[in-house]
Automatic annotation (TrEMBL):
Top-level class of the enzyme under EC nomenclature: hydrolase
Catalytic activity: alpha,alpha-trehalose + H2O = alpha-D-glucose + beta-D-glucose
Entry's EC annotation: 3.2.1.28
Coiled-coil boundaries: none
Protein's name in the database: Trehalase
InterPro entries in UniProt: 6-hairpin_glycosidase_sf, 6hp_glycosidase-like_sf, Glyco_hydro_37, Glyco_hydro_37_CS
Organism: Saimiri boliviensis boliviensis
Family: Belongs to the glycosyl hydrolase 37 family.
Length: 572
């Protein structure tokens, strides 16, 4: 009997070991752009400085022909094609990146939108005018062949033209586009916004969600869900209720994706709460960062590699790729190999969904459907209770990501800790006062050039000393919405700090950067997987602020001097 028990245990261990090594499905079906030997050989040969270059290149001939020629070539070299011949193969069978897109000047672009006249300072007004010109440089539309021969492109076809972040990012991205739209609406370009919104809605109809970005290798991961908020911003500017009526069910479908595929149950105080997380159970290295992911995986036991790749994709889904937020609690919190994104319940994701549920309730009420309005009102109330029970910390005066495995909050500072303030997802009227104290206690208000992404220095781009435009927006507008005069004063000062950093760097370099290093007087940021992206050729994250500040000469102004100004940010 003991021998048979040992044999049974051994079989169980072997089965568990095999299960842990089972391959997860690839990020898409393409054996060129998403998985397979061709992708592996080309990316591991590092023919290009940036892995994204190759997977963005269109095919010159049909994919079946490319794969057949490659297979024959690979067999002839024992599955290890020499670099020069691999380079020649790629040059023969692929076109240069960007061939599938053509420049597009938005038809609703106007030379002098009203917001420019509201900026009293001449230098700031001139700068804002130069930024407004960038819409013409960043507009793109797809060539007809992307529709007629989609199999030859990694680009996902979209009917309507759109704005890209620029630099290495020549396709649209999901959460970036919210801040792009804010800037476009400020520039009175509602038709461009409507087209971009329609593209996203079409993607939801086709795939059930909005992908991370406009490439097939992004299909199985999304990004922070801001589609409902995009619709709200568009409606505020246009009152286009007919467009809402046509698309309300598609908005509901997108929220369903998050509920069905990204929900997790958390038990606190003997009660279960449903919240959401980033989670991408798809295997293999990210095609656009293939060699980095493969090399990182080689530092781990073989059975742990698929899990690593899935966690990296979940980190990319968060928009924060990458950050100590997703490393904390791992065996080596300074190493990307410790990433555990799906093991954390993020404050910002749940605040975004809470806000979306409130907006959906308002939308359905506006359309006269009270039963659906009540459904979303109830969902919001349930999420609000979960945020309070699981993520809120009364002593600290902020919300914190919750660690599902270690069953505790991550007490580190991140601007995302205050996202519920920005999203209006709280019930305590004193929360703005508590948030202010939290910022003071964390010494965040001592940083003069922007709010740091974290206080952890890991070398990742979503950590100290980098500051990113959307995170400034989360804190600044969260405080600015409060009735508390002190909160509005701090919001104004933080906005002035950020405008000053952007303006000073632009004055020196004639470029807007995606992120800024706030530890050295405000300079272009660094770290992460690629070189910092600039506004020539592109500016991304054109975020906007209700208050743009009085003076380019760095003297605080007692009153706001303009409406909004779109600010630089690039893409992950």
């Amino acid at each position: 009997m003991p021998g048979r028990t040992w044999e049974l245990c051994l079989l169980l261990l072997l089965e568990l070991g095999l299960r842990s090594q089972e391959a997860l499905p690839p990020p898409c079906e393409s054996e060129i752009y998403c998985h397979g030997e061709l992708l592996h050989q080309v990316q591991m040969a590092k023919l290009y400085q940036d892995d994204k270059e190759f997977v963005d290149m269109p095919l010159s001939v049909a994919p079946e022909q490319v794969l057949q020629t490659f297979t024959e070539l690979s067999r002839g070299h024992n599955h290890s094609i020499p670099r020069e011949q691999l380079q020649a193969f790629v040059q023969e069978h692929f076109q240069a990146k960007g061939q599938e897109l053509q420049p597009w000047t938005p038809v609703d672009w106007k030379d002098s939108p009203r917001f420019l006249q509201k900026i009293s300072d001449g230098k700031l007004r001139a700068w804002a005018g130069q930024l407004h010109q960038l819409w013409k440089k960043l507009g793109k539309k797809m060539k007809p062949e992307v529709l007629s021969h989609p199999e030859r492109f990694s680009l996902i076809y979209s009917d309507h033209p759109f704005i890209v972040p620029g630099g290495r990012f020549v396709e649209f991205y999901y959460w970036d586009s919210y801040w792009v739209m804010e800037g476009l609406l400020l520039s009175e370009m509602a038709e461009t916004v409507k087209g971009m919104l329609q593209n996203f809605l079409d993607l939801v109809k086709t795939y059930g969600h909005v992908p991370n970005g406009g490439r097939v290798y992004y299909l199985q991961r999304s990004q922070p869900p801001l589609l409902t908020l995009m619709m709200d911003r568009y409606l505020t500017h246009t009152n286009d209720t007919a467009f809402l009526q046509e698309n309300i069910e598609t908005l509901a479908l997108e929220l369903d994706f998050w509920i069905k595929n990204r929900t997790v149950s958390v038990s606190v105080g003997g009660k279960n709460y449903l919240l959401n997380r980033y989670y991408v159970p798809y295997g293999g290295p990210r095609p656009e960062s293939y060699s980095k992911d493969a090399e990182l995986a080689n530092t781990l036991p073989e059975g742990d590699r698929e899990a690593l790749w899935a966690e990296l994709k979940a980190g990319a889904e968060s928009g924060w790729d990458f950050s100590s937020r997703w490393l904390i609690g791992g065996p080596n919190p300074n190493s990307l190999s410790s990433i555990r994104t799906s093991k954390l319940v993020p404050v910002d994701l749940n605040a975004f969904l809470c806000q979306a549920e409130e907006l959906m309730s308002n939308f359905y009420s506006r359309l006269g459907n009270e039963s659906q309005a009540m459904k979303y009102r109830t969902l919001r109330e349930q999420r609000l209770a979960a945020l309070n029970a699981v993520l809120w910390d009364e002593k600290a005066g902020a919300w914190f990501d919750y660690d599902l495995e270690n069953k505790k909050k991550n007490g580190e500072f991140y601007p995302s800790n205050l996202t519920p303030l920005w999203a209006g997802c709280f019930s305590d009227p004193g929360v703005a006062d508590k948030a202010l104290k939290y910022l003071e206690d964390s010494q965040i208000l001592t940083y003069q050039y922007g709010i740091p992404t974290s206080l952890q220095k890991t070398g990742q781009q979503w950590d100290f000393p980098n500051a990113w435009a959307p995170l400034q927006d989360l804190v600044i507008r969260g405080l600015a919405k409060a009735a508390l005069p002190r909160a509005q004063e701090v919001a104004f000062q933080l906005a002035q700090n950020w405008i000053r950093t952007n303006f000073d760097v632009y004055s020196q370099k004639s470029a807007m950067y995606e992120k800024y290093n706030i530890s050295n007087g405000g300079q272009p940021g660094g770290g992460g997987e690629y070189e910092v992206q600039v506004s020539r050729p592109g500016v991304g994250w054109p975020t906007s602020y209700r208050e743009l500040l009085g003076s380019a000469a760095h003297t605080p102004s007692p009153t706001p001097q303009c409406a909004h100004l779109h600010m630089g940010q690039g893409r992950s």
